What we know:
Distance between the termini: 39 Å
Oligomer: single chain
Radius of gyration: 13 Å
Order of helices and strands: HHH
Helix content: 55-70%
Structural class: mainly alpha
Amino acid sequence: xxxxxxxxxxxxxxxxxxxxxxxxxxxxxxxxxxxxxxxxxxxxxxxxxxxxxxxxxxxxxxxxxxxxxxxx
Length: 72
């Protein structure tokens, strides 16, 4: 379980870095293959998984970053 949290923590920390051109954090892009693999792994988690909630929260943050970048 701890091994699964390390990549998520790293992603969260890395995506929180702002670029020099704006106050909006940089949004990391993922390939379709990576997105499908993530979806498969997420679906395999047990119901009520805290990791699944964290991923959902990360999805909200990504949406907020997109909105922030549109306003530039």
